[in-house]
Predict the 3D structure of the following.
Amino acid sequence: MKNNKKIQYALAVLALGIWGMIIYQVIQYYNQDDPSAFVHQSAYIPTSTSASPTSDSYMLALDYPDPFLGTHKSVKKSKPAVKAQKSKPTTLSKQAEQAWPNIQFVGYSEKEGQAPFILLKIDNVNYVLQKGEEVKGVKLLKADKSHALVQWQGEIKRVE
């Protein structure tokens, strides 16, 4: 019986030690000095890392031996693709030059006694708007739970 009591005490101390380490790790995680560890960025603005455009065509190296037959096949080389010739730039009308910004209906939030909030993504940046507000020249005219009516340069568009 004395042996069982010693084992129970040893296991209790071991369990308390393990739980103590777990609690210590959790406390250390939440007491970090870096506040950016908990900040979630909702707006993503893509940036280009290369200044030159990349090529759209790839050349496959097909001069390897057949793994089953052990023979080496020779592949006929294909002619490189002909690039499109550059055409003279044409002048576009003012309406064609100024295209609609990329607008997406993201969400709808409504509280009792308050006007609803509409979440719109305009050119990959999220905005919270109410009826009548304007951002980047885009004015929110009307909104429902599934769509919104927006106005840009006098034109009205339904965004879903």
The CA atoms of residues 5 and 11 lie 10 Å apart. The chain is about 20% helix and 20% strand. The beta strands are 103-109, 117-122, 125-129, 134-135, 138-143, 148-152, 155-159. The two ends are 74 Å apart (CA to CA).
